[in-house]
Amino acid sequence: MSGAIPTIAEAARLIAAKQLSPVELTRACLDRVHKLDGELHAFVHLTEERALAEARAAEAAISAHGPKGPLHGIPIGLKDIVDTKGVPTTCQSKFLQDNIPDADAACAEKLAAAGTVLIGKTTTHEFADGGPSFDLPKPPARNPWNTEHFTAGSSSGTGAAVAAGLILGGIGTDTGGSIRGPAALCGIAGIKPTYGLVSRAGVAPAAFSLDHIGPMAWTAEDCALMLQALAGHDPRDPASASRPIPNYTARLGSGVKGLKIGVIHHFHETDHKVSDGTQRGIAAAIATFRDLGAEMREVQVSPLQDWLACGSLISITERAAAFEEWARTRLGDFSERLRSRLMLGAFVTGVDYVQAVRRRRELRAELQAAMKGLDAVLTATQPAEAAKIDAVPKWDLFGPPNFTMPFNVAGYPAISVCSGFGEGGLPLAIQLAGKPFQEPTLLRIADAFEKATQFRERRPALLAA
Asked: Which of 133, 154, 199, 240 is catalytic?
């Protein structure tokens, strides 16, 4: 395979027409891994032999019977907190360097059933928390647009690998922005589905009432194709929603004419003022949606600081609970960043936690009221281009409020898509959030924006080099 890296949708069409071989596609991805991952550190474990075997099996099955679906023969990666039978799942931690699960996580199981090809396990922050740590078993992932810069986290390796074309799609997890942050800084698409839509069974917990599993890919259309395979009730996850699963691609391409999109201007203009480049990207996106026929409205909710305070307190407390035993007996084996956060979470009182949960109900009700009559809301995903990887503060959780936490607190679906490039040549993004279980509409809006702009035509310069 030569030329441009295909999207999942493009590759699926070529594979179905027998114009692209899954083996050829997989080899091309592996070739890029070998050439680029020494700089990117997007993978902690490569499953090359398995990938080639799965690609050969997919090719034989497709040749005999046609593809079972659009993911058949597509190379993917799984964040290294997702259990994989017979393949190490280390959570980027000293605690689990010898951990080889005896069963797949639900999301891994579903993607395998859809015929995907596993290239490997992608880099994460330790237990999906703690930032870019340099005292872990493997180095942190780097941004393929400029390897001196950060990817955001904690689905850092998946974001870098998709942007660099090492995989066509992958799994991320999102407790306060860990899908949408890397999607924004790496210039790809990433959706945090509604809480409970995708099973978390077999995925290492972070903060149980905020954790989400979702797809990351080059386009919103590709995310829709992956979400189709991932969504569904699972009794192994106590928060799993039991409801009919719609066709997530059915409305793609139908535009946004007549849809109503609210803009939470105060999030990115007052509560946490974004860079000039990010602001221009948001303004251009609003103009694009208007040109496409959407009705744009102003939306006002509680300040971003309120959402972050509520979500962060819940997050650090639930994380401290998840790792209480190891924190008591082996605290020094955690990375310095995560160790500090776990110690902080241990000092939160029960009263404080309950008050945060109460405040969460109020904030969710407020967002529900504000979105009445709207199809989605729009704000920033990240405040600016990616920072240098060695300039990310230890206590970034308690710095300026982030734009992603509100939709973890509410449990609403939210997607990040590329909205251009800043002065440093690094990606910028917008975030769109929808109503619970209205992912078809949210993906329709994101897809319309991507197809009305040209940002999907540009890949990192690292690939050309």
From this structure: 154
For 415, the enclosing helix (H) or strand (E) is strand 414-421
Task: Give Cβ neighbours of residue 98 (< 8 Å, ≥ 6 apart).
Answer: 88
pLDDT of residue 462: 81
pLDDT of residue 464: 66
154: annotated active-site residue: yes
> Is 79 annotated as catalytic?
yes
Q: Give the sign of the dihedral formed by CA 84, CA 314, CA 241, CA 173.
A: negative
So what's the pLDDT on residue 3?
64
Residues 6+ apart with CB under 8 A from 8: 70, 71, 74, 168, 169, 217, 218, 219, 221, 222, 225, 226
User: What is the distance in angstroms between the CA of the first residue and the CA of the last residue of the chain?
Assistant: 18
Give the pairing of strands 117-122 and 414-421. Answer: unpaired
Please report the pLDDT score of residue 2 as a whole number: 52
Question: Given a cut of 80, is residue 17 above it in pLDDT?
Answer: yes
For the chain, give percent helix, strand, coil, nearest 5. 45, 15, 40
Residue pair 187/163 in contact by the 8 Å Cβ criterion: yes
Report domain extents, the chain. Answer: 8-464
Tell me, yes or no, if 178 is annotated catalytic. Answer: yes
Mean pLDDT, the chain, whole residue set:
96
- Tens of pLDDT, residues 307-359: 999 999 999 999 999 999 999 999 999 999 999 999 999 999 999 999 999 99
Please tell me the pTM assigned to this model. 0.98
Q: Which listed residue (21, 155, 178, 312) is catalytic?
A: 178
**Cα(146)–Cα(386) distance, integer angstroms:** 9
Q: Which of 79, 121, 192, 435 is labelled catalytic?
A: 79
Dihedrals phi, psi of 312, to nearest 5 degrees: -65, -40
Alpha-carbon distance 313 to 34, whole Å? 41
Six-digit token pair at 386? 């990616």
Of the candidate ranges 29-43, 159-173, 395-409, the one whose mean pLDDT is the lowest: 395-409
Q: Provide the percentage of residues in the chain whose pLDDT is more than 70.
A: 98
| Second-level CATH architecture of 8-464 | Alpha-Beta Complex (3.90)
Q: Which two tokens stand for residue 84?
A: 């994989």
Write out the DSSP string of 209-220.
TT-EEEEEESSH
pLDDT band at 394 (very low <50, low <70, confident <90, very high): confident
| Matching residue, tokens 């995310």 | 223
Task: Tell me how far apart the alpha carbons of residues 111 and 76 are, in angstroms, rounded to a whole number.
Answer: 9
